[in-house]
Amino acid sequence: MKMNAVVLEKHQHLVYKQVPIPALKPGEVRIAVKYCGVCGTDLHIVYDGSLRYPHIPGHEITGVVVEAADEEGDGLIGKEVTAYGIIGCGHCIHCQNKDYSKCQSYTFVGAARDGGFAEYVNYPARNVIPLAGLSLRSGALIEPTAVTVHAIRLLREIPKSSVVIGTGPIGLLAAQALRAMGTQDTVVVGFSDRKAELVRSLGFGFVNCTKESVAERLAARGYADGVPAVLECSGQVTGLNCALNAASPGGEVVMVGIFESDVLLDAKACHGILRKELRVFGSWISSHSAGQNDSDWCVAMDLIRCGKIDTEQMITSEIELQDVPAALEQLHSARGADIKTLIHV
Ligand SMILES: [Zn+2]
Ligand SMILES: [Zn+2]
Question: Which ligand is nearest to the CA of 100?
Fold first, then answer.
C-alpha cells in the first residue's frame, strides 16, 4: 500500500512522491492527515539540515484515526484528533513525571521519525488527543499554541503587563495566550512594519524596534521600569537584547525562539541581567500525556475552543500536498511575510 507524501530526499531537496504506508508498531495508531501546519522547525529541517534522509517533515497535524495496532488505540478509531509530537524515552525521571519536554532522548515526530507532510502518519496512541468538537482546521494550531502556553506557565505568575518579541506565529499566539490567561496589556515588538496593522487589530501595542526605542515606547505606555515578563519568540540576538532591556527589575525573560547562530549580547543588556536581577530561562516545546487534563495541550485547546485565540487570523494560506515543495521554497526566501501556512491533505 502506498501514500502520497512530501519527502526530504537530501539537503534542501523536497519531492512530492508515492512512498509505502509505514507499518504500525505496537501501541501505535495510523492517522489519515487532514491538515498539517508548516512550522519554522520544518523550514529549519529542510534548509539547515535534517537528522535523517529520506525524511517526511511535519508535526502540527490533525486528522482521523483509521487503524490501531492493538487495543491501546482501538478506542480512537474514527475519531478526529491531533497528536503530541514528543515520544519520550519512557525511562528517565522526566518521562516518569510526564514532563516529556525535558527528556533528553526523546524522538520527535517530523524530526527523528516521519511526520505529517503525508496522507498518513503513525503516532503512539498515548500521544493522540481527540479534538472533541474543535475543527480539524483550527486544531492544526493547537501545537504552536501549546508551545506558548508551556512558556507562559513557566513564569512565576501571570503578569499584568508583558512584552512579546517577534511577530511570527509563536509571537502572535503568545500575545493572545497571555491575554487569555489574564495579562491585561501586551506590547509586541517586531523588526519591520509588516505585521504592525495585524498586531494592533488583535488589540496589542506594537513597536518596530529597528525604527523606535522600545524603552521610550514602554515608558510612554506607563512602564518606565519595563514589564515583569518578556517572551523572546524571535530567536534573534536583537530580540534577546530587546527582551533583556524591556524587563523590569526582578522580572522574567523566557527564551522561546530557537537561536540558529552564536549570540553575542550587548554589554548593557547583559549588565541588566545582573543589575535588575532578572530571571532568564528557556522553554522547550510543550508537555502532554494521555489522561492529563491540565496539560499545555488541554489548556491550548480550551483557549482555541472559547475563541480567545483567533486561529483564522493566523492562517494566512492553505496549500495542497503537491504544492509543498514550491511553497516551502517561497516561504524560505520570503521568511516572515506569512504567518501560518496550512497544508490541506
Ligand atoms: Zn511547530
Ligand atoms: Zn525520557
Answer: 2
Query: What does pTM read for this prediction?
Result: 0.96
* Measured distance CA(342)–CA(321) in Å, rounded: 10
Q: Which ligand is nearest to the CA of 147?
A: 1
Are 269 and 291 in the same domain? no
SS3 257: coil
Q: Is the same domain home to 221 and 340?
A: no
Residue 161 φ then ψ, to 5°: -130, 155
Q: Answer for the pair 336, 194: CB distance below 8 angstroms, yes or no.
A: yes
DSSP state of 219: H
Residue 336: pLDDT band by 50, 70, 90 thresholds? low
Residue 51 lies in a domain: yes
Using alpha carbons, list the distances in angstroms from residue 17 to 39, 84, 271: 21, 26, 53
How far does Cα 209 stand from its chain's mean position? 23
Supply the mean pLDDT for the chain.
Answer: 96
Dihedral sign, Cα of residue 132, residue 136, residue 137, residue 143: positive
Domain identity same for 169 and 292: no
Task: Write out the DSSP string of 130-151.
Answer: E-TT--HHHHTTHHHHHHHHHH
Q: Into how many domains does the chain fold? A: 2
- Structural contact between residues 300 and 324, judged by C-beta atoms closer than 8 angstroms: no
**Distance from Cα 100 to the centre of ligand 2, integer Å:** 6
**What distance in Å separates the CA atoms of residue 171 and residue 218, rounded to the nearest whole number?**
18
In this prediction, residues 20-26 reach a mean pLDDT of 97
Measured in Å, residue 219 CA sits from the centre of ligand 1 at: 34
Residue 112: Cβ-neighbour burial (10 angstroms; 0-12, 13-18, 19+): middle
Give the domain extent around 37: 2-144+286-344
**Dist. CA 291 → ligand 1 center (Å):** 22
* 85 alpha carbon – ligand 1 mean position (Å): 9
Q: How far is the CA of 90 from the centre of ligand 2 (A)?
A: 5
User: Which ligand sits nearest to residue 91's alpha carbon?
Assistant: 2
